[in-house]
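Exercise 7. Predict the structure of Methionine--tRNA ligase from Companilactobacillus mishanensis.
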Amino acid sequence: MTTGDKKTFYITTPIYYPSGKLTIGNSYTTIAADTLARYKRAEGYDVFFLTGTDEHGLKIEQKAEAMKMKPQEYVDMMAGKIKDLWKLLEISNDKFIRTTDDYHVKAVQKIVERLIESGDVYLGEYVGWYSVDDEEYFTESQLAEVYRDKEGKVIGGKAPSGHEVSLVKEPSYFFKMSKYADRLLKYYDDNPTFIEPEIRKNEMINNFIKPGLEDLAISRTTFNWGVPIPSDPKHVVYVWIDALLNYITALGYGSDDQTLFDRYWPANVQFVGKEIVRFHTIYWPIVLMALGIELPKQVFGHGWLLMKDGKMSKSKGNVVYPEMLVERYGLDSLRYYLMRAMPFGNDGVFTPEDYVDRINYDLANDLGNLLNRTISMINKYEGGKVTTVENLTDFDKSLVEASEQTIKDYREHMDKFEFPDALASVWAFIGRANKYIDETKPWLLAKNPDGADTLKSVLGHLVESLRLVALMIQPVMTQSPIKIFAQLGLDIDKDTELKFGETSVGTTVTSYPTPIFPRLDAEVEVKYIKDKMAEEQAKNGGGKLSKSAQAKAKAQADAEDEYPKEIDYDDFAKVKMVVCEILDVKRAANADKLLQFKLDDGTGVERQILSSIYEFYPDFEKLIGKKVIAVVNLKPRKIRGEWSNGMLLSSEKGDDVILATVDNSHKNGAILS
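Solution. The predicted structure, encoded as tokens:
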């Protein structure tokens, strides 16, 4: 859409569920959206950037109750904290919506009543599985794990997220999703870039639409914290329907003033994590179809920011919060790292080592060194003055051509949300500018009276290169470009033409260049980050068993030798046995019979198991490299101060105990069944 002389650009993040403190994983999505919003503004677009909080649902009601607060008090507190975080990260959103906002609630009520009147929503009874943690309904076939009783009846299970589900039976309003399935598939075909990356589209079609799109329960009656349906107020609107509608209610849809909606809708792109692509590419477009509203142009489902041991999780104790990194290393290092190191669209892995290396090599060495060398030479050779940019050396043309190609590549990548590639192209140009110094040798030109004009031009080329770099990184790094311009004596509000040769000559650089990214002691800083993570782990009880879990573990230990003559097949089916490779083994401290095993169970995270078999394996080092069988879904036990996460299988006959092993053709993590 175009307003006046400007094209509009509407971008959204998911609205965040305030059930806990946000991590760098949540910040990743928001910084990515902010990066795109800033880039589009710089390119002359009229941008509207929306983010906010999703504040209804049973989980919020339970969280507030646990904290002895009213739900509204709780979400007010959490929304304030999220706003503070976005301020810290310098997120440039144009609006922050809360699903408890009056205008949103009224619009949702009006929309749901309209859908009931049209016949797309009908009253029925829901019987099925629901995860409170995910605020999501599941069919039996969609559960990652199913629990059955002795007769084979399903009595529970786990959602794909790993959260427990419970059986729900209650009156509910249903949306006729199946009515729109064919129309949705046709939209996918007619708009091949609607879902990106393409792998997400294939998942939606194969996993949810082709098996048969079931009607969706869109109301609940077993709790009150939600938007009541006016014509039937004992029902509150399903939190996901409530949440999805924020993208249009924030623009005034359903109100008396739809000016913003008319101006910015449809959204150009909606950034979401891959775990909620289904809601945004199946339920959301179908609701819009039913309302007769144009669909968003694109939904981009990015990957997860993982840790070495998998997805960031408070229960694992592997959480990294943005505040701890910003406080220690500044905002720009975090924003740069997330946009450069994480492949947008795919999963990426955060490690303290990589984080520190990016600061040292990319920011301090490459960019910081170029800036410091340039300013120091201008002060030393030209009295701090930038006077000309003329092509006088054999290397000038090559540098200018490199800048032009970089700007072209940068724009192409940014337009496709390929932020790591865009930054990689900028850093390649930084490398080219550093090489230019070595090629032109300003220190030799300074000694040659005939080289005075050439020296001035070389230094001008370097200033111009830095100006372009600062402009290109500005959508990602909000503070460093300001510092670069200030040290170069340039006006960041005026010298904004992204084209080589537009520097304001005659300016004066700073007399005392200050490193914008001081080099870090890698060993010290890696330890600092790991220590901070450990503090958070301890604070959140990571790695510890609750009292109830400890009681269960003790009961399990007490009953370890009491084997019944017969067990049901379903009981046996609950035992998960996998192939593990022994990575290391040693005698456990303070225990004569215990061996302490480190195992590769195929998950990418070392598993520790203690086993009382030292007397049978005095040459235990010979076990390293062998593949054994471990039961991996036993409750963890603490033995002589060390956690044992599972049990190794062995055979026992008379006085002989032998570990059960398999040959190397079995892959680590393979399940025995």
